[in-house]
Every structure is written in structure tokens, then in C-alpha cells.
Amino acid sequence: MAKHYGAFRAVDDLSFSVARGSFFSILGPSGCGKTTLLRMIAGFVEPDAGDIHIGGKAMRGVPPNQRPVNMVFQHLALFPMMSVGDNVGYGLARRGVAKNEIKRRVGDMLARVSLPGAQDKRVDQLSGGQKQRVAIARSLVLEPTLLLLDEPLGALDLKLREHMKIELKQLQAAFGTTFVYITHDQSEALVLSDQVAVMNAGKFEQVGTPQALYYEPQTPFVAGFVGANNRIAGRATEVSGCVVTITSAQGLVMPARAMGSVTRGDAVEAFVRPEVARLARDATVLRDTGFPTFDAQVTSLLFDGANSAVLLHEAQSHTEFRIALPQTGEFADLRVGETVAFGFDPQRAVCFAS
Fold first, then answer.
1. 35, 5 Cβ separation under 8 angstroms
2. Which of 38, 114, 152, 343 sits most deeply, having the most CB atoms within 10 A of its CB?
């Protein structure tokens, strides 16, 4: 399918399928076309080309209110003048379902989203996470084939967002409804999804499991966008099998695994994740592993509990590296200005011709 606005290609000839009952996320930066794509699936925007099939049925020309789809937005759009029960039952009432049946189904649905007995509460009495569950209950009570979620956790604070990620994953598994979720937050996409599509400039760069995207990125964009990475640009000065030796303009020489075709002399980009590198105060400990080892100076300590890291300047080229600190407490007394060594398995770094 495709959607153009003048010369701008918001969605550029995409073709993909989502397995029934799965959690599928579309991950990408702002302006990449995620919301336009979701709105086409929902029926709010008509594609310029291509067809959309939901549950095996063509959706061309089918208005939004007749599609087996519901949508949860970032700002939820709950009715503040209605009770929780009336919010959840609103769609059923519009369909002409009997009042007793609405009451039964609303009660069952609220119990399934961990809000039993909340029918008579006002919306303004609910926490952010409870409002989120009400919005999802309002959609799921209609038993859609497909639930579309447009950055639904974006307005929540960090701690609640982390909690709701787990709840959303559990809800999807419990209901078995197909979820299509869009986000610019890579953590949300990786934690929640069975499959993730990484979107850039209207196209999917790669579609795969979270593990595949993280460990086997197929393009430089995916390598740089999914997870933290140290990016090194340079030339391929040696190619031996799948291992490429990269020499940067600053004089850093390092090996990495080639992704795709790389030949000697090519301009390349290499990516090394902070957690694949091993840190040591004694360089001989690392050299005994046989992996490339670099001396460096600590320039900054980034304490963030289990996600703590250190910024280093490699001694010869002064290239900056971010290295994750192990949670052993071994480097709890590390100080800015110290000299350390770091090394990594070349197979854990990836390299692309650029």
C-alpha cells in the first residue's frame, strides 16, 4: 500500500502481513509514516494504491465504523461525563445491545483488565494506568479482529509506563486479539512484540523478532536505531572471510563482522553495543581472551543503577566509546581520569558498507 502527499511519500509501497493473535509493533522515529499507516488500516485515510485485508476480507471502501477494528489513542479519549461502566459499554449501546447484556459484558471485561467493580466510578477518580485499562476494555469489549494502538503509553510517567508494558503484554496474551502497536520507543517494541517492523521514511527497513532486530540488524539504520550503539565510520582496510578490519579517519583500527557484501576499500560503518565490550583495569586479562584490546581513559561515569555505563576515550585515536558497567560491583570505585582497557569479540560487532 502507499500514501503520498504531493511529492512526499508518507507510506512508500509497503507490503506486510500480521499473524492472527500476535502482537505486531511498528517502530520508527517521528515523521516516518507510522501513524499514517495505522490510520489507513483503521479506515480514516484512504491509500493511494494497494489493498488492505483484515481477517481475510478486503477493506477498500469500507468505512471505519464497519471495519472489525478498534483503536486506542495516546490521549485515550474517555468520556469524562460518563461512568467507567458507561465508557466501556458505549460501543455496545451504539450497536443496540440489550442493557442487561451490556451490564454483564462490561462487568466481565472490567474484571479481565483487573478493575472489578469499577463500573460506577468516575473517570477522574482513576489513575493513569487505570484509565489506560478502561480505554483498552472499551475497545476489547467489542471483540474486534484487530486492535490498533497509537503510542498509548506516551502520556504516562516512566514508572507507570514500565508497569503498563507488562500489563499490555499479558492482556494481549490473555485475549488472543491481534494487536498492531506503533511507537518510537524501542524498549516498548522489544518488550511487547512477537514481531517488530522498523520503519524509516515510509518504508520498512527490517521486520523480525525483537531478538533478530537486536542481534542481526540488516541495515545501518536498524543497527543504530534499535538499542544503544557505538558507531564508527571508516574504510575497510582488510577483509578476511566475514571479518572486516575498519580504520577510521582518527586512526582507530578495529574488527567487526560484515553484514552483507563488504570489499576492501569500501566506506563502512561499524556498530559495537555497549554491553558486548568487556572492561578491565589490567589489559593482560583481556589480551588472554584473544580478542582485540584497547587502552582508554575514563572521561565520564553514567550511573543509572543496572543500566550504568562509562564513557571512554580510546588512547590512540581518542574515539569515544560507551561501555556498559557489569553489575558485579567490580567497578563501583571507578573514577574519571583512570586508565582502563576494553575489548570485544569481533563477531559481536557488525559492519555495513555505506
1. no
2. 152
Between CA 116 and CA 97 the distance in angstroms is: 21
Task: Give the amino acid at 115.
Answer: L
| 319-327 contacts at long range (C-beta below 8 A, 24 or more positions apart) | 319/232, 319/248, 319/250, 319/252, 320/230, 321/230, 321/272, 321/274, 321/277, 321/296, 322/228, 322/230, 322/274, 323/274, 323/277, 323/279, 324/274, 324/275, 324/277, 325/279, 326/279
In whole angstroms, give the CA distance from residue 333 to residue 161.
32
pLDDT of residue 209: 97
Indicate the SS3 state at residue 126.
coil
- Give the model confidence (pLDDT) of 307-326 as tens digits: 899 999 999 999 999 999 98
DSSP type of residue 202:
T
Q: What is the pLDDT of residues 198-223, one digit of tens each?
A: 999 999 999 999 999 999 999 999 99
- Give counts: helices (H), strands (E), the chain: 9, 20
Q: What is the residue whose three cell numbers read 511529492? A: 7
pLDDT in tens, 139-189: 889 889 999 998 888 777 888 888 888 888 888 998 899 999 999 999 899
Q: Report how far residue 310's alpha carbon sits from residue 277's, in angstroms, rounded to the nearest whole number.
A: 11
Task: Point out which residues pair with 342 in neighbouring strands.
Answer: 279, 294
Q: Which residues pair with 26 in a beta bridge?
A: 182, 197
Task: Give the domains, in start order, of the chain with CATH numbers.
Answer: 3-221 (3.40.50.300), 246-353 (2.40.50.100)
**Beta-ladder partners of 150:** 182
H or E segment at 192? helix 186-192
